[in-house]
Design a protein that fits this description.
With 524 residues, the protein is α+β, with helices and mostly antiparallel strands. Helix content is 41%, strand content 14%. The chain has 18 helices and 15 strands. A four-stranded mixed β-sheet has the order 2-1-4-5, with no helix packed on it. The protein is globular and about 75 Å long.
Length: 524
């Protein structure tokens, strides 16, 4: 009897069997479902300790056409889509994107050098930024799809940076919960890793990152091009790389465990919160943080070629306060307040002032289209803390600047005339009436930060994993369109900037139906 060849899915269920000929006709939801199902299986294998199976599934994912198309889509739709590498190539047309997906192959792959540029930092110094080519970025995005489930499964519970379903608001809420009680710790170690992305040791990454080591070695040793010369890269990961945040998180995971092992459980009041390379550690005394916690962190980082920044790593009493993720956390008696940092408030004031001053030749409508997203986005970020007073002061400052703008435009007109022209369309607010067709009028009004409703953020569970089926329902309830986020009169209309982590049930079923042709898909 002739033995039939076994298939895990019918030809119509996988984009690999039906290569799309039109980029706009691709069923992206179906592709995401295929990739997500493999990612869930990778996370399950890692959780069960079966690294050989996880490696095989990673190879399957990085060679699937669905993942390749999603990788190309990611690098052609993000903010850097119009930023070329050293080859000066950008994928604009649909034909270029389809061809790029076909060329994402491991065999014969050789990354090109990075294009080095510099961006200014807050302290006036310059931060080096290394930009890969579009092809290299797509390859990194492809392998990141297979690496992220592994990183999420083994991540520190209280790490919040560059992780799906987590945000700055979760880290800040964790800090608030740790320090708000009467018996909370009084001392805080503010940790900052010096040049984290630029100093990570290549040898450690090659030995501990669970991915294709040949591909990883090529990325790390690609070098960078600056001022007509090629320079080697002996350490660090490029800050412009798609996969660099995942590599940095893998390198820093385990810090929480190292700190726990260095201190005793009772009476030390040690808590750890990390966002990317910024972290805080609380303690019952200053001596505990100096003699036990800081040496443990230093030893942990030394194994990875990293070290603490002596200037930014300080130990502070909670009554004096400290800055974390653009917020000032300080205790006044028994009351803990998390307010916008003064430097960030001043930065927004300067930015809004420059925006208004440079708009002398713009119409009122054009000026509002520039100001409203700026104010709304800033207010959305700070709406989870004690920011109402700051919002009111900011609104007063912006109105004062707009009044000066109106006076410069019409120096010979009276104040009453300026009031009627610029502040009468919406009950005294800076606004303009727009006309759209016959008998259709719309009023565009300056967004007021004080209209943003202050809401306490609900922190994500530390053990929650978006690739674990046990947390499917939990992440569905945390979706911005679900229970946690409601559009009310006082809320800013911009939703939270978090990716959906919903795992649809039929991705995990043994006999799922193909979303395109309805054929059953068997689980491999």
């Amino acid at each position: 009897m002739k033995k039939e060849k076994q298939m895990t899915a019918p030809p119509g269920a996988d984009a690999s069997f039906n290569p799309p000929r039109n980029w706009k006709a691709i069923h992206w939801t179906a592709l995401r479902q295929q990739v997500r199902r493999l990612q869930v299986r990778i996370a399950k294998a890692i959780k069960n300790g079966d690294r050989r199976k996880a490696s095989a599934l990673q190879w399957l994912l990085t060679h699937s056409r669905a993942a390749k198309l999603l990788a190309v889509r990611r690098v052609t739709t993000n903010r850097g889509a119009k930023t070329p590498g050293v080859d000066n190539v950008i994928w604009r047309t649909d034909r270029q994107k389809l061809l790029a997906a076909d060329n994402l192959k491991r065999h014969g792959y050789k990354p090109k050098p990075l294009r080095r540029t510099y961006i200014p930092k807050k302290n006036g110094k310059l931060r080096p930024l290394s930009i890969p080519t579009m092809h290299d970025r797509a390859m990194q995005a492809l392998h990141a799809l297979a690496l992220i489930p592994v990183a999420e499964t083994g991540a520190d519970p209280y790490s919040y940076g560059f992780r799906e379903g987590r945000s700055c608001a979760d880290a800040l809420e964790h800090v608030h919960l740790v320090l708000c009680k009467k018996r909370s710790p009084q001392w805080v170690l503010e940790g900052d890793i010096r040049a984290c992305f630029d100093e990570i040791g290549h040898q450690w990454l090659l030995q501990h990152v669970p991915m294709d080591r040949q591909i990883l070695r090529k990325w790390l040793k690609a070098g960078y091009w600056e001022k007509g010369q090629l320079f080697p890269t002996r350490k660090g990961t490029p800050q412009g790389g798609v996969i660099s945040p995942v590599l940095a998180n893998i390198a820093l995971d385990g810090m929480q465990k190292a700190i726990r092992q260095a201190v005793s459980e009772e009476g030390d009041k040690v808590n750890f919160v990390r966002y990317a390379d910024d972290f805080i550690v609380t303690g019952a005394s200053k001596e505990l943080l100096e003699q036990k916690v800081k040496p443990a962190v230093t030893a942990f980082l030394a194994q990875r070629g990293l070290e603490l920044s002596e200037q930014k790593t300080v130990i502070t009493h909670i009554n004096k306060g400290f800055n974390f993720l653009g917020h000032t956390v300080r205790k006044f008696g028994d009351k803990l307040l998390t307010t916008p940092a003064k430097s960030n408030v001043q930065a927004l004031r300067d930015k809004s002032r420059l925006c208004i001053q440079s708009a002398r030749g713009l119409s009122q409508e054009a000026l509002l289209h520039q100001l409203n997203p700026l104010i709304r986005g800033w207010a959305n970020y700070y709406r989870h803390g004690a920011a109402k007073r700051t919002f009111k002061r900011l609104d007063h400052y912006v109105i004062w600047q707009l009044w000066r703008w109106a006076k410069r435009r019409h120096p010979k007109k009276s104040a009453a005339w300026k009031q009627r022209k610029y502040f009468s369309a919406a009950n005294g607010a800076f606004s303009v009436r727009l006309t759209k067709g016959q008998d259709k009028a719309q009023v565009l009004t300056l967004y007021k930060a004080a209209s943003t409703r202050i809401q306490r953020h609900i922190k994500i569970r530390g053990a929650a994993n978006p690739y674990d089926p046990n947390y499917t329902r939990y992440f569905e309830t945390r979706h911005p369109k679900g229970r946690r986020w409601r559009q009310t009169e006082g809320n800013a209309p911009t939703p939270q900037g978090q990716n959906s982590t919903r795992i649809v049930a039929h991705w995990l079923q043994v006999a799922a139906a193909c979303p395109i042709q309805g054929a059953p898909v068997e689980e491999a």
